[in-house]
């Protein structure tokens, strides 16, 4: 067997121009050509400003204008999963954006299981990816995995609700959770500060892992500071508005109150800028990477191990193909057994139905016979009646005959 020999790495200075400093440009050109893709999920009770925030984040009307729509009074029965896709472009860079909304979440009398359909949807997307990865042809893998989930916390100013905690606990291992305080313009600055502290305490107490930009020691000081600034704003207190208002003669995106204007794009008024910075400008790729390398990977490992395919067999020398064949055979046997059972049930049901039909046919015959006999009886009775009537009526041939005999 050949031995792997580690080769010592020697740092060399180049004597002249080679050109690989251009590698980042090559990657840049390729990725711009290919375009980018990002999937964002928004979760929270209805009316917390989810669609407004998405429109505000991407500065476009991704959501149809809800304010002009007739309100529906129908209460959905379950949490729905709705997807909106849009191709957005900025300075020649194309982004295929998918927003997944979850209307109905938290809107029922009993919201205990509200998190379940959302978790199932996220896992189904991992399954679809895994299935594509396992195909022989893996050229065109479509990635529909959720890269980040904005969780909208109601601006109560108290602490997290049991539903918030349950949702985050259940989803944290599967998706990059980004908690936001919705409609933070309805709280004062002090209320927001205290609310944030309590939310972070609840999150820590329940050992919920939320997404935070990583701090790497080898990053440049500017990046480290930027990331620290972002972290210090979590959970982001946000204000959304897709309408412009006037401030000192200038049009800005914001919400107008009798006491003044809350500006969306003003870091002193809310954390919208920091959220957008993290989500779009600085950490979109990092969110995708974390989804792929950590969250999806742990799901994939768990799934393969649970499914009987022991990952350690890859290293223990067992042929994965024979394992696969074995599983295939077991699966086929299971399917054949199910099919036989289904056939038996079907035949039994058909026999039962035939018996029932026979029985009702016989019943019908009996009733028919009974009715026929009855009618015959009635007919005979009527005939008898008729005969008797005719016998007693004057002018009838029989009576005339009798009368003739009398007056001779
Ligand atoms: P969704 O059901 O969660 O998608 O909520 P919408 O985005 O449809 O918003 C519901 C209502 O809240 C609309 O009338 C919005 O104008 C309003 N709204 C949205 N964001 C904010 C916000 O940040 N602050 C305040 N005060 N109202 C908001």
Automatic annotation (TrEMBL):
Region (Disordered): 352-408
Domain Septin-type G: 34-306
Compositionally biased spans, kind Basic and acidic residues: 352-400
InterPro entries: G_SEPTIN_dom, P-loop_NTPase, Septin
Lineage top rank: taxon: Eukaryota
SUPFAM superfamilies with a match to the protein in the record: P-loop containing nucleoside triphosphate hydrolases (SSF52540)
Gene3D superfamilies reported for this sequence: P-loop containing nucleotide triphosphate hydrolases
Molecular function terms from GO: GTP binding
Keywords tagged on the record: GTP-binding, Nucleotide-binding
Annotated PROSITE patterns: G_SEPTIN
Cellular component terms per the entry's GO annotation: cell cortex; septin cytoskeleton
Keyword Nucleotide-binding (UniProt): yes
Similarity-based family: Belongs to the TRAFAC class TrmE-Era-EngA-EngB-Septin-like GTPase superfamily. Septin GTPase family.
PANTHER family per UniProt: SEPTIN
Listed name of the protein: Septin-type G domain-containing protein
The species this protein was found in: Geranomyces variabilis
């Amino acid at each position: 067997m050949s031995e792997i020999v580690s080769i010592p790495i020697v740092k060399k200075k180049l004597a002249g121009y080679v050109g690989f400093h251009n590698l980042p440009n090559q990657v840049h050109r390729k990725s711009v050509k290919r375009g980018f893709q990002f999937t964002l999920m928004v979760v929270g009770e209805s009316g917390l400003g989810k669609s407004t925030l998405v429109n505000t984040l991407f500065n476009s009307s991704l959501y149809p204008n809800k304010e002009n729509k007739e309100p529906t009074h129908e209460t959905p029965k379950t949490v729905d999963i709705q997807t909106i896709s849009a191709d957005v472009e900025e300075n020649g860079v194309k982004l295929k954006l998918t927003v997944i909304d979850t209307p109905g979440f938290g809107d029922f009398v009993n919201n205990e299981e509200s998190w379940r359909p959302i978790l199932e949807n996220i896992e189904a997307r991992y399954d679809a990816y895994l299935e594509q990865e396992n195909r022989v042809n893996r050229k065109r893998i479509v990635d529909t995995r959720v890269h980040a989930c904005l969780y909208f916390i109601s601006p109560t100013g108290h602490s997290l609700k049991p539903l918030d905690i349950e949702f985050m606990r259940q989803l944290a291992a599967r998706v990059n959770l980004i908690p936001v305080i919705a409609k933070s313009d309805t709280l004062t600055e002090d209320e927001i500060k205290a609310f944030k502290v309590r939310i972070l305490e609840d999150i820590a107490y329940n050992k919920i892992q939320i997404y935070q930009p990583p701090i790497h020691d080898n990053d440049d000081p500017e990046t480290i500071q930027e990331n620290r600034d972002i972290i210090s704003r979590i959970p982001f207190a946000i204000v959304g508005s897709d309408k412009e208002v006037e401030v000192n003669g200038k049009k800005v995106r914001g919400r107008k109150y009798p006491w003044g204007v809350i500006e969306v794009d003003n870091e002193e008024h809310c954390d919208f800028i920091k959220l957008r910075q993290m989500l779009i400008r600085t950490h979109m790729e990092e969110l995708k990477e974390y989804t792929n390398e950590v969250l999806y990977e742990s799901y994939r490992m768990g799934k393969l191990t649970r499914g009987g395919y022991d990952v350690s067999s890859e290293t223990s020398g067992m042929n994965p193909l024979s394992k696969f064949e074995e599983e295939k055979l077991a699966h086929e046997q299971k399917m054949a057994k199910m099919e036989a059972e289904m056939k038996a049930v079907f035949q039994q049901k058909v026999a039962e139905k035939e018996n029932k039909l026979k029985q009702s046919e016989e019943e019908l015959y009996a009733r028919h016979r009974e009715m026929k006999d009855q009618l015959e009886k009635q007919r005979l009775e009527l005939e008898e009646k008729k005969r008797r009537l005719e016998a007693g009526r004057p002018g009838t041939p029989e009576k005339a005959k009798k009368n003739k005999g009398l007056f001779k």
